[in-house]
Amino acid sequence: MNVPPRPPLPHGPYLLCDDSLRPELSLVEKAERLLAGGARVLQLRMKHTPPREALAAARAVVARCRQAGALCLLNDRVDLALLADAHGVHVGDEDLPPEAARELLGPGRLVGVTARGTQGALAALAAGADYVGVGPLFGTTTKQVQAPVLGLEAFKRVVAQSPLPVVGIGGVGLANIARVAATGAHGAAVVSDALLAQDIAERVRLLAEAFDRGARGASLETG
């Protein structure tokens, strides 16, 4: 049986559709607003949603993403990714091991892994991952992370040494996303800065523009 190739991870803002923010909006409504702003990749993170509701939300958000031509990855939940026909998963320090995620998902879906440095990126490659989320860059209030803040200089070294595309994670928003992009990062994960904005779609557009400015600056430096 021919397996379609895994889709490439888009450059730029990597938006999280999270159930811990903006409770007045459903996960589907959050996803629709993120996608309306031009989001090209969403990670659906449901730490507080009951299983049946999570499955329904996953199926609906994946459908919206596919209609918009965007990727949808499930945080941690390989089972939901398969049931909802998502493009893949992202697993963290305490989630299912990436080797197991790859075994269950097969070769046709993306596996992202949280890493804290270059050694973690090398281990993720060996485990079959497609990209790494590296951080925390600036610290974050959205998630409790038992790891020191990395900072941009150390992050830039990881980007240069990583064998996999690197997405910066932790405290990224409009005020600093251009600096993250200027390190040569493949992407930058944004949670609260987008979802807490009064106009989520407009915020996503501004984030993409800022990332592109930073990336152009990095390419001029290396060109």
From TrEMBL:
One function term, GO molecular function aspect: thiamine-phosphate diphosphorylase activity
Sequence ranges assigned to domain Thiamine phosphate synthase/TenI in this UniProt record: 14-193
Gene name of the record: thiE
Organism: Corallococcus soli
Function according to Swiss-Prot or TrEMBL: Condenses 4-methyl-5-(beta-hydroxyethyl)thiazole monophosphate (THZ-P) and 2-methyl-4-amino-5-hydroxymethyl pyrimidine pyrophosphate (HMP-PP) to form thiamine monophosphate (TMP).
Annotated protein name in UniProt: Thiamine-phosphate synthase
Alphabetized InterPro entries for the sequence: Aldolase_TIM, ThiamineP_synth_sf, ThiamineP_synth_TenI, TMP_synthase
Binding-site residues for Mg(2+), renumbered to this chain: 76, 95
Binding sites annotated in the UniProt record for 2-[(2R,5Z)-2-carboxy-4-methylthiazol-5(2H)-ylidene]ethyl phosphate: 140-142, 171, 191-192
Family: Belongs to the thiamine-phosphate synthase family.
CDD domains xref list: TMP_TenI (cd00564)
